[in-house]
Design goal:
It contains 6 helices and 4 strands, in the order βααβααααββ. The protein has 157 residues and is of the alpha/beta class. The protein starts with a strand and ends in a 15-residue tail after the last strand.
Length: 157
């Protein structure tokens, strides 16, 4: 099965001191071992860069661009980056209109658009509520703590 890895997962996966790092690392390892393919979109990488290079006092990692580049290279090796296309934009436009999306939630709509265009049914995320509206679009949010030995459980939707 294909999964998109949400930015909140990438950030905690990269931060080895974060309390959720072990749970996320274990979930990613299990999914890989079970043969699932985990990918990211360019938007995930952009959002990751934003937090990685933002000052610590503004809730970022405070990394230099060179340090952020090293982390992003690791992420790209582990999670292939989906291709961007005008089809993703068209699907995003459809989603924001159909679901009345506004504000910061437009970013999640773009992730869902990339998932739909690339036939990715699941997103590994800490924010299942953000994707609840897309259940009718065939999108399943999966929390890392619910990934068990056989099949990942859905986030309570």
């Amino acid at each position: 099965m294909l999964y998109l890895v949400d930015t909140n997962i990438l950030l905690r996966f990269a931060d080895r001191d974060h309390p959720l790092h072990p749970v996320i690392r274990t979930a990613i390892r299990k999914l890989h071992q079970e043969g699932h393919k985990l990918q990211v979109s360019s938007q995930n990488c952009i959002e990751f860069w934003n937090v990685a290079t933002r000052p610590i006092e503004r809730n970022g990692f405070g990394l230099t661009p060179l340090e952020a580049e090293r982390l992003l290279q690791r992420i790209e090796r582990l999670f292939p980056v989906l291709p961007d296309s005008s089809e993703i934009y068209r699907e995003w436009r459809r989603l924001v209109i159909v679901f009345g999306v506004s504000g910061v939630q437009v970013h999640d709509a773009r992730l869902v658009a990339a998932m739909k265009v690339n036939n990715i049914p699941c997103i590994l995320t800490l924010n299942g509520e953000d994707f609840k509206r897309y259940i009718s679009e065939g999108i399943t949010a999966v929390a890392p703590g619910t990934v068990d030995g056989a099949t990942p459980n859905k986030v309570d939707n």
